[in-house]
């Protein structure tokens, strides 16, 4: 499979389209000025606008070969944020469907300079913010399939913990290693003052870490994205190490 994702990129594009519609449905159920608890400081309307804006940023990356300086950041006059979101998704999905996921493209993660990176990134961007808006709207959370959640766990650890923190100049305050175990997959996340790194590993290697975090794929996915409280997963061993992993990812993904 080209790229770094654990699942087929067509599956990720399908999931993104489904998540866009769930996000629109939840956003239309409440006033747009309702605060979003899971994205502090934002309202429902701001979250929906943000996702639509990010879709357009990605189009700029793909068209210009670098992060664009300008893009349509807000809905057109008279356009709803829901329409703005859908329009951005349609335009982006057409480009992503046209290109092979293994084809080279400009991205901000050197390990995956492909169109597939953006399929994956936008599927998870949309899913996580759909969770935010459903919570703000008082909706019961829509299901996330385990294959999507497992890929989201991998992306959170490899891209956000293992790369984004360094881009932001952030690191751990203490040396720690955390094994993450869920859905038959395992990872190690190691933090310290010099680096934050994560990699896929065997179950035995994960069990040998200073702390071991385990939960269902969906619970683990949402926990790594800070959408579950720090104590929402099972932790064996060094609880402070698990707390540092959670806190660092909150900084990386905010």
TrEMBL record:
Annotated MDMPI C-terminal domain residues: 147-242
Highest rank taxon of the organism: Bacteria
Gene Ontology MF terms: isomerase activity; metal ion binding
GO CC term, one of those recorded: plasma membrane
Domain Mycothiol-dependent maleylpyruvate isomerase metal-binding: 15-134
Keywords attached to this entry: Isomerase
Pfam families, sorted: MDMPI_C, MDMPI_N
Keyword Isomerase found: yes
Protein name: Maleylpyruvate isomerase family mycothiol-dependent enzyme
Organism this protein belongs to: Prauserella cavernicola
């Amino acid at each position: 499979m080209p790229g770094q994702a654990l699942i087929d990129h067509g599956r990720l594009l399908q999931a993104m389209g489904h998540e866009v519609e769930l996000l629109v449905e939840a956003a239309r159920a409440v006033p747009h000025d309702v605060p979003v608890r899971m994205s502090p400081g934002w309202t429902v309307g701001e979250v929906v606008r943000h996702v639509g804006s990010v879709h357009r940023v990605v189009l700029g990356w793909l068209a210009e070969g670098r992060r664009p300086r300008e893009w349509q950041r807000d809905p057109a006059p008279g356009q709803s944020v829901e329409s703005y979101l859908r329009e951005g998704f349609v335009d982006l999905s057409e480009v992503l469907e046209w290109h092979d996921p293994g084809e080279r493209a400009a991205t901000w993660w050197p390990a995956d300079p492909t169109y597939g990176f953006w399929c994956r990134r936008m599927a998870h961007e949309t899913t996580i913010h759909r969770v935010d808006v459903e919570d703000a709207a008082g909706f019961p959370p829509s299901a996330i399939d385990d294959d999507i959640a497992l890929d989201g766990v991998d992306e959170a650890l490899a891209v956000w913990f293992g790369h984004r923190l360094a881009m932001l100049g952030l690191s751990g305050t203490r040396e720690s290693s955390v094994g993450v175990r869920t859905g038959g997959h395992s990872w190690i996340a190691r933090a310290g003052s010099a680096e934050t790194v994560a990699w896929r590993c065997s179950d035995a290697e994960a069990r040998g870490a200073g702390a071991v975090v385990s939960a269902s794929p969906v619970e683990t996915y949402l926990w790594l994205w800070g959408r579950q409280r720090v104590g929402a997963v099972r932790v064996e061993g060094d609880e402070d190490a698990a707390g540092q992993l959670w806190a660092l990812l909150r900084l990386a993904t905010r």
